[in-house]
Amino acid sequence: MILITGATGFIGSAVVWELNRRGRTDLILVDKLGHGEKWKNLLGLKFAEFIDRDEFFERLSVDHWAHDLEAVFHIGANADTTLLDGDFFYSWNFDFTRALCDWSLGHGVRFIYASSAAVYGDGALGFSDDPDLTFKLKPLNPYGFSKWLFDKYVLEHDWYDKVAGFRFFNVFGPNEYHKGRMASVILHTYPQARDVGTIRLFESHHPDYKDGGQSRDFVSIWEVLEGLMFAYDNPKVNGIFNLGTGRAHSFNQLAEAVFAAIQKPAHIIYFPTPDDLRDRYQYYTCAEMSRLQALGFASFTDKFADYVKRYVVDYIAPGKRLGD
């Protein structure tokens, strides 16, 4: 059996979908349903049981399925980079992760977990996943700090060669519809392009970047799944790895790809970055992928515009999810 935390969320539900595609339905799903519509991400998917996150560790100690687990995909986390409650992030993102990893290693269960490119802060030290750099990193917000704290814990407690952690860069794709402000720019800009024929982007407040020239390593959910399944299929792939495309695309390029997907001319306007984000804003991210590739993971070709089109045309426009 396989356990997936954060199973109703964006990436977690995509992992369930991918495992179903592989014929696996013996899945234990863990999450909080909340008051939104995350539950819709599980429609059309197959699994053995759903467990409320608050009851999980109690169930882990008594339920029969715990003896049959072969792997854990620990994807669950609060990823709101605007939330400033450090205690909440410590409990939700670090303490829970540490306890689940400790249990998994103690029971011989493969542990694959989600870290984040947020650990790199403003990128001043680059984006290398060399373990020695981890201790020098300075995240910009409590979310990034909580992810950095567990990465550091893995290194300090000799878990580095026993688990596989992935620092997700800017992931986009179906099943992110519940994320609100934290959803991808593609999801936010598509209605603008469709309804009014313009896309609004942040102005640059950095002298080295023109408006809309801020760049990210935008990685599709389908590419993320390739990385996660590579670790699942290869149990000797252990460490903390970047998971991006290894390329940066500007927000202007993203907007142009959205317009191209709906066959409209590009028209972009700019507005000031909100004050609550401005001091914690990353102007550039780009994953260094050489360490994972050295273990046999194939490098991604540049299909950014194709994946944007696939997302817009096949999912956002018709209102579909991966399980549909």
Layout: helices, strands, pairs:
Blueprint: E1 2-5, H1 10-21, E2 27-31, E3 49-52, H2 56-60, E4 71-74, H3 86-106, E5 110-116, H4 131-134, H5 142-156, E6 164-168, E7 170-172, H6 185-195, E8 199-202, E9 215-216, E10 218-220, H7 221-233, E11 239-243, E12 249-250, H8 251-261, E13 268-271, H9 275-278, H10 290-294, H11 304-316
Helix pairs in contact: 1-7, 3-5, 6-8, 8-11
Explain what you see.
The longest helix is centred in the first third of the chain and has 21 residues, at 86-106. The strands form four sheets. Strands 3-2-1-4-5-6-11 form a seven-stranded parallel beta sheet, sandwiched between helices. The protein has 324 residues and is α/β, with parallel strands linked by helices. Helices cover 35% and strands 16% of the residues.
Attribute tags:
single chain; 324 residues; alpha/beta; seven-stranded parallel beta sheet; two-stranded parallel sheet; 11 helices
- SS strand fraction: 15-25%
- Rg (CA only): 19 Å
Poorly predicted ranges: none
Tell me the number of helical segments per DSSP (H or I, 4 or more residues long): 11
Number of beta-strand segments: 13
Short précis:
This protein has helices at residues 10-21, 56-60, 86-106, 131-134, 142-156, 185-195, 221-233, 251-261, 275-278, 290-294, 304-316; strands at 2-5, 27-31, 49-52, 71-74, 110-116, 164-168, 170-172, 199-202, 215-216, 218-220, 239-243, 249-250, 268-271.
